[in-house]
Design a protein that fits this description.
With 402 residues, the protein is an alpha/beta fold. The protein contains 13 helices and 14 strands. Helix 5 packs across helix 6 and helix 7 runs parallel beside helix 8. The C terminus is likely disordered.
Length: 402
């Protein structure tokens, strides 16, 4: 191959953290193993950089721009958008996106929802798209915080327009879903089977390993974007408070930024100072020791496409207690790797108390969690699934998804 023949456009989200960052880094690694040159591009939110996009009040005054940066040897393009107030415009194929598509021989999309694949769909070229969750599932909790004016705009313009766009995108390309839950939802939205395979986010089982001597009995943890309303940090705080009301010496560890104003107020009203620590995002060297110290990993979320953070905790030998929120329902198995619960603090506290009081049960769940992460979520299996999708898309004649 020549240099141009090896270029792969990876359309994604800003690589700040969370599951999509992990997904994208996996794809970059797998592409490099194939001798390819990945080029990363993403819409840079107007709230982060106002110099790249053109909002409604600046139409006619300037053009959409891009910024090229290099990180860890990867060329990255931060791309603006016309009318960033409208979510369906973020990946509209402007001249910048068209030039990026034309500059690469192969095309991949990795994102929370499918919208990042829009420039690839409009180009008419084959592509692979790895999707974590449906568009609406990814934002429904955020809608609750919209202003009245934005709710009207969202209801009558953004939601119907984006829903049509999503159905069109889902009927194109080779689609990989992050979980069985995501696959079912995407197929339902498209109106027929469109997902060709399931590709869970792999867990670095060599990095995340059990350390029984490090476990702190009663320490309950959660890692994720703490200001994301989908994560439902309020339930985590209320569950820790309920455990302590029962006389359990339970402490909490929240990792992933700062609490929202609402959760900060709830933290104070529950009197959790000294009982729950809040930490910023941890790097890959600092996170494993924390996870291996947890007695229980608690997922309080309202919605999860998969929840790679919980799988990393399980690989660290930590039993998981999770709400029934989508992805975790596939690997949190009652009495084997942890417990699934409803969305009440009382029910979550019941499961945590059960694990805390029965140390033999905790050992059984720990072994089961580690075994499942090794057998079902290892790197080798994920790489095979991606390779099959790549060859199906770029090396074999097209065939029906079903």
């Amino acid at each position: 191959m020549t240099g141009d023949d090896r270029r792969v456009l990876v359309s994604t989200l800003p690589l700040w953290g969370g599951g999509v960052r992990t997904m994208t880094l996996c794809v970059l690694r797998w592409l490099r193993e194939r001798g390819m040159e990945p080029i990363v591009a993403y819409y840079q939110p107007y709230s982060i950089d106002r110099s790249l996009s053109v909002p409604s009040f600046q139409l006619g005054r300037r053009r959409v721009r891009e910024r090229v940066i290099h990180e860890d040897g990867v060329e990255m393009h931060e791309v603006g958008a016309w009318l960033p107030e409208l979510e369906f415009m973020h990946y509209r194929p402007t001249r910048i996106w068209k030039a990026l598509v034309e500059s690469c021989q192969f095309h991949v999309s990795v994102s929370g929802n499918c919208l990042a694949a829009l420039p690839l769909v409009r180009s008419g070229r084959p592509f692979v798209s790895w999707i974590a969750t449906p568009w609406r599932d990814d934002r429904v909790q955020r809608e609750e915080r919209f202003s009245p004016a934005r709710r009207v705009l969202d209801r009558w313009l953004v939601r119907p327009t984006t829903a049509r766009l999503e159905r069109s995108i889902l009927r194109s390309g080779t689609l990989l879903a992050l979980s069985q839950h995501t696959r079912q939802r995407l197929d339902a939205i498209a109106g027929h089977p469109v997902v060709c395979d399931i590709l869970p986010n792999p867990v670095e089982t060599d990095l995340f390993r059990p350390d029984p001597s490090a476990v702190v009995p009663g320490r309950v943890g959660f890692t994720g974007r703490l200001d994301d309303p989908r994560k439902n940090v309020t339930l985590f705080l209320e569950t820790i408070a309920e455990c302590r009301r029962r006389g359990l010496p339970v402490t909490g560890s929240l990792v992933g930024g700062s609490l929202s104003a609402e959760d900060g107020e709830r933290f104070r009203s529950l009197g959790l100072a000294g009982a729950v620590e809040v930490k910023p995002h941890l790097d890959r060297q600092s996170l494993p020791p924390l996870l291996s110290s947890l007695d229980v990993y608690f997922v309080p979320s309202k919605q999860e496409g998969l929840c790679i953070a919980a799988l990393e905790a399980m690989a660290s030998g930590c039993p998981a207690v999770s709400t029934r929120c989508g992805g975790p329902e596939e690997f949190v198995r009652d009495g084997e790797t942890g417990y699934l619960v409803g969305s009440s603090a009382s029910e979550a506290a019941d499961a945590i108390e059960r694990v805390f009081r029965d140390r033999m049960l905790r050992s059984t769940l720990s072994a089961g969690a580690r075994a499942l992460s090794e057998s079902n979520y290892c790197e080798a299996a994920a790489r095979r699934t991606f390779t099959e999708a790549w060859e199906r898309t770029f090396l074999l004649p097209p065939r029906d998804h079903g």
